[in-house]
Design a protein that fits this description.
- The chain has 715 residues and is α+β, with helices and mostly antiparallel strands.
- It is 16% helix and 32% strand.
- It is built from ten helices and 39 strands.
- An eight-stranded mixed sheet has the order 32-33-35-34-36-37-38-39, with helices on both faces. Strands 3, 4, 5, 6 and 7 form a five-stranded antiparallel sheet that branches. A four-stranded antiparallel sheet has the order 8-9-10-11, with no helix packed on it.
- Strand 1 and strand 2 form a beta hairpin.
- Helix 2 crosses helix 3, helix 2 crosses helix 10 and helix 5 packs across helix 6.
- The longest helix has 19 residues.
- The chain starts with 42 loop residues before the first strand and ends in a 7-residue tail after the last helix.
């Protein structure tokens, strides 16, 4: 189970009279040819240091001057992209590659099975149900019917234990705000229940399926819903058939505005568990109470935001947790709630050489998923912690799923790699046998491609893994167009996964490289912490060294090398391109955190202080100022060709980050390399983005690379 849903950090072409049409080779060297960004004389003082913020007006996305600037920027970007001859063919091929049947991992409830399916090019996956594993699939919920343009998406689905009702969240235009509703599974009709102002929370049903717990924030002030800071989450219990105003308050902490709680009901219905978290670090404080003692205050069980404590299951008063307390790569312990002192814990699964990523309790077994050099290994243990077997996976890749209850004999998981889309398997926990349940039919041959894992050394000697994927037989030559992707933050691991975009790139003769940087979770909490706060520069150095290694090993050269990343990865690209602009032939920073001095002032940005630090602290301010992409743009620099991407409804990394960075980059550009920004409308940070918008954005990015890297085989 996942105990938290944390806020981590995935065009309009008009105003023709304002901006002259530009051909691709006519992007000018001077900032005068770009739209004039609204400016102010704002200067902030941090610990005695004056820092100018001339593009502060762009923080207001709804002002007339910002809207005019956005439209003018989109026109210039649109003109550039439309002038690329290969763009239409790239879009067409991406559409072909995307058009295959996709399945989510099924979950059984009350004898029914629930899973997502996309027929190929549907904007949103459709939720299906079956009365038995071999039953006839029945459409239960089609989010494509909720909007004409596919911009309303499912944000979460949770079936009641009897399988009769479905709580589901919907998100509009990519916003993190969700509205939760309830559907009768038999009739396919919605009940009258409606829950608003939910963000980063799911639903947790009560044992009798008559109500569910959820977390919500206070309703924002008018005009602040997409940019105002989110504090003071509360947990409520909603009884079906009653208005939200009558919901019962279960938990709040008015003295700690950052604290949030995720409710869990134990499978035996005996306890309510509240996992408290603040920020994005997996460091928790766990409360509990007997479920039926409704008036009792939850009491502290374990943790004080010092380590991870992920509740797994219980055997009466003995609770099982996955934790990294005194084990940075993770272990499983048993804690008796009658005496939860750490010296009384029982270690069931000790720390291993590999990072423990997830644990599920199914069929009377622990199914433990590890990361072995950034790809999945799954090991099965009995409830006493004895190793039973390893799950036989198809090869190096990513396996995820394995949900269910302790009484279930079977579970499901999905497996994917850089060259193969997700196949769904049914796993027999008792025998260890896996069988294919759903496998996509493809319009390419995965055997035509291969993935190689290499290791290189960063600036301080740390060994970093990197995956290289390309057509079989790709020769080592400096002429290879190469796309290097990274993230490096928030304990998030980049493991092998299929995407049609990189495949199209490889068809064009490109090499796709993914570096597993510090700051991620590939090797546990120590690896994560090595790329945070005052050590964040390690992440950028790791990425820069990956680029240098690719060049030194004759896989590519600087003029053929592009770098890409989204969200925290957008920050990665922004920092690396301002530190080493000569190293890259093109840069694709997506929805990036670019203003490292003010990120914590918007929506859920305060939660990222765990990883970044804060400009409110003197030493952290110095570190942030040293690499903040917005503040390290230097006038007179020849920046690489750059296509920044963001969205007008991104209420996680607000678009002001990208707006201000683009304006600064354009004003400072000293050569003819294009510095462009593509601003998507009716879209957010990435979750729930319609397929059509995903394909359009990918086509524009790969067309930009074909043009700027001079890819000869571009379609």
């Amino acid at each position: 189970m996942t105990v938290t849903s944390k806020p981590i950090l995935i065009p309009v072409f008009f105003l023709l009279a304002l901006v002259p049409f530009l051909e691709a080779d006519d992007i000018p060297a001077t900032s005068k040819q770009y739209p004039e960004a609204p400016k102010s004389d704002t200067v902030d003082v941090y610990h005695g240091v004056k820092v100018a913020d001339p593009y502060r007006p762009l923080e207001d996305p709804d002002s007339d001057v910002t809207r005019a600037w956005v439209e003018a920027e989109n026109q210039i970007t649109g003109a550039f992209l439309e002038s690329i001859p290969q763009r239409d063919a790239i879009r067409a091929r991406l559409t072909e590659l995307w058009d295959y049947e996709k399945f989510g991992v099924p979950r059984g409830k009350g004898g029914r099975y629930f899973y997502a399916r996309n027929a190929g090019l549907q904007n949103q996956a459709v939720l299906y149900t079956q009365e038995s594993l071999d039953g006839e699939p029945r459409e239960l919920l089609d989010p494509n019917a909720l909007s004409a343009d596919g911009t309303v998406a499912l944000a979460g689905t949770v079936a009641s234990d009897d399988g009769a009702k479905l709580a589901y969240g919907i998100a509009e235009a990519g916003s993190d705000w969700n509205v939760w509703k309830v559907r009768d599974v038999t009739t396919g009709k919605d009940l009258d229940d409606r829950i608003e102002w939910v963000k980063f929370s799911s639903a947790e049903w009560t044992p009798d399926d008559s109500a569910f717990f959820y977390g919500r924030f206070p309703e924002p002030e008018p005009g602040q819903d997409l940019k105002g800071a989110n504090y003071f989450q509360k947990v409520y219990l909603h009884k079906l058939g009653t208005p939200q105003a009558d919901d019962t308050l279960i938990w709040e902490d008015p003295e700690h505005k950052e604290w949030e709680a995720t409710p869990t009901v134990t499978d035996d219905g005996a306890y309510l568990v509240l996992t408290l978290h603040k920020g994005t670090d997996a460091k928790y404080r766990v409360l509990f109470r007997p479920f039926n003692e409704h008036d009792a205050e939850p009491v502290h069980l374990v943790g004080d935001f010092d380590a991870e404590y992920e509740f797994l299951d219980n055997d009466g008063p003995v609770f099982w947790f996955k934790t990294n307390k005194d084990a940075p790569r993770g272990r499983v312990v048993a804690i008796d709630v009658r005496d939860p002192r750490p010296e009384k814990w029982t270690e069931l699964i000790p720390q291993a050489d590999d990072a423990l990523e997830a644990v599920n309790v199914v069929g009377g077994r622990f199914l433990a998923s590890y990361l072995k050099d950034a790809h999945t290994a799954v090991r099965v243990f009995d409830l006493a912690g004895a190793h039973v077997r390893d799950v036989d996976l198809p090869g190096p890749g990513t396996a995820a799923g394995f949900g269910g209850k302790r009484s279930d004999r079977h579970t499901f998981y999905g497996f994917t790699s850089y060259t193969t889309p997700t196949t769904i398997y049914r796993y027999d926990v008792e025998t260890g046998a896996s069988e294919v349940w759903r496998k996509p039919k493809l319009k390419f041959d995965p055997d035509d491609y291969e993935t190689l894992q290499v290791f290189y050394h960063s600036h301080d000697g740390t060994k970093i893994p990197m995956f290289l994927t390309a057509k079989k037989g790709l020769s080592k030559t400096a002429a290879n167009p190469t796309l290097l992707y990274g993230y490096g933050g928030f304990n998030i691991s980049l493991t092998p996964a299929f995407s049609a975009g990189p495949l199209a790139w490889m068809e064009m003769g490109g090499l796709f490289a993914v570096a597993n940087l510090r700051g991620g979770g590939e090797y546990g909490e120590s690896w994560h912490q090595a790329g945070t706060k005052l050590k964040k520069q390690h992440v950028f150095d790791d990425f820069i060294c990956a680029a240098q290694w690719l060049i030194a090993e004759n896989y590519t050269n600087s003029t053929k090398l592009a770098i890409s990343g989204r969200s925290n990865g957008g920050l990665l690209v922004g920092a690396c391109m301002t530190q080493r602009p000569e190293l890259y032939g093109a840069c694709l920073p997506g929805v990036g955190v670019m203003d490292m001095l003010r990120f914590h002032k918007f929506t859920i940005g305060w939660a990222w202080v765990d990883d970044y630090g804060s400009s409110d602290a003197p030493e952290e301010f110095k570190a942030l100022l040293a690499y903040s992409p917005l503040h390290t743009v230097r006038p007179g620099t020849c920046s690489p060709p750059t296509l920044i991407t963001t969205a007008d409804h991104d209420d996680r990394v607000v678009p002001a980050h990208s707006f201000k960075f683009a304006a600064a980059l354009q004003a400072a550009q000293s050569c003819h390399n294009p510095t462009l920004i593509r601003i998507e409308t009716k879209a957010g940070h990435g979750a729930g983005k319609p397929t059509a918008k995903i394909i359009e954005e990918a086509a524009d990015q790969y067309a930009f690379l074909v043009k700027t890297l001079k890819v000869e085989s571009g379609r």
